[in-house]
Amino acid sequence: MAQFTAGQDTLALEGAAAVRGAFHAIERLRARGAEGRGLSAGALDLLIRLSAAPDDGLSIGKLAQAVGVSSRNVTGLVDTLERDGLAERVPDRRDRRSVLARITPAGLDWVESFRRPTQVAMAAVFRGFTPAETAQLRHLCLRLVENQRQLDQHLSQTDGTNAQP
């Protein structure tokens, strides 16, 4: 890595490589659990968000913003969840032109059956971490996300592209 940085400090690159490695390890574990139950990681993320949403559901736009993908992508994921009976589209009572996505009772059951194995897996992944270390890691990762969001916003303003938030 020192050759790549022309002898400059490699700590930030090493940190980024470590974060990338940790991300891939967690994603592999998450994908294994979700796909073993018939859902992609994206559909799983949406279903978990819907399980915590208000009873009347969330708009496709709000879901897209929360997940950080396009509304078109969320529409496809909701189609999948709806086909599997885990979510449904319902009219928005406040705006007749709008449709909301809402978790179904079967979706709530699915999330509940996924919750315990996930908690066991995450306990194994974070084995040896103190609660303070886990909280610090969460804090540092959220700072990375915010820094990247700000950088992305800056770059989109300077190069004229519309980057995702």
Automatic annotation (TrEMBL):
Residues 1-146 form the HTH marR-type domain. Gene3D superfamilies: Winged helix-like DNA-binding domain superfamily/Winged helix DNA-binding domain. This is MarR family transcriptional regulator.
